[in-house]
């Protein structure tokens, strides 16, 4: 009959028989573990790190066996009466007592990043320590504006390419340099590192940046949002009268707006008016005719497009 009770990283195993006993493992450096197995150990580069692991069987403290796990290969760390007795482990130091409950990596550098240290006894690994070097976050920069039509939903993920811990200690979104408040619904910035618009408005065009920080440093990523919307203007009506030989400017729309900037297409009696000569269509919504002649009489129509 067997019972299992787990408290954080302390695991107690009770049973009867020669093969039964109890085991537990914990770590004393660095602090801040969450009790998961494997235990993620975030360590400063060049810092030394010490792991602590006790193994009990049948109520007796047993010698701890340490193992380096790299790319799914397990390499036991061997000991002699003088200490470590295996070539390639000169950077390790074990506690002097026979049970070897402590092991220290003297200089923790890039060669240990993403490796694992396992501890146990009798061929069984009790706990695994994931080794990670603390690194500042690096976010992708998105300098090309992203075009989205007004009213459409939009979401964007700013990729974090480097850094550990991956989830930052803190992050802040800004719009054109002004911090965005938390708890808002449009855009929603509650999920790192995503910004979500239920629907975009023309006033949402601009630069969005996110600044993140962890124990290793700070990084900023950004996107440029360009909201497109159809041409708008206040229509003007004729007729317009002019004396032959005079100049005239016909205004079809005022207060023209749109993104991208609208252009004008003029037609006379359903035939397109070409810009040039006596006809100037360069100003959206306006047509200027110089030295009007009698054949200029007709119905003029203006269409705004973008």
Describe the protein's architecture and organization.
With 306 residues, the chain is mostly beta strands. Helix content is 0%, strand content 49%. The protein is rod-shaped and about 115 Å long. The termini are far apart. The relative contact order is 0.11. Mean pLDDT is 77; it is low at 1-37.
Number of strands: 30
Helices, by number, come to 0
| Oligomerization state | single chain
Distance between the termini: 77 Å
Rg result: 36 Å
Please specify the SSE layout and strand pairing.
Elements: E1 3-7, E2 10-14, E3 39-43, E4 49-52, E5 55-57, E6 60-62, E7 65-70, E8 73-76, E9 79-80, E10 83-84, E11 92-94, E12 102-105, E13 116-121, E14 124-133, E15 135-139, E16 146-149, E17 154-157, E18 160-164, E19 170-175, E20 178-179, E21 194-197, E22 206-214, E23 217-235, E24 248-251, E25 253-259, E26 263-268, E27 271-272, E28 279-280, E29 286-289, E30 300-305
Parallel strand pairs: 3-14, 16-23
Antiparallel strand pairs: 1-2, 4-12, 5-6, 7-8, 7-13, 9-10, 11-12, 13-14, 15-18, 17-21, 19-20, 19-22, 22-23, 23-25, 24-29, 26-27, 26-30, 28-29
Give a short overview:
Helices cover 0% and strands 49% of the residues.
List keywords for this structure.
rod-shaped; disordered N terminus; six-stranded mixed β-sheet; 49% strand; single chain; mainly beta; 306 residues
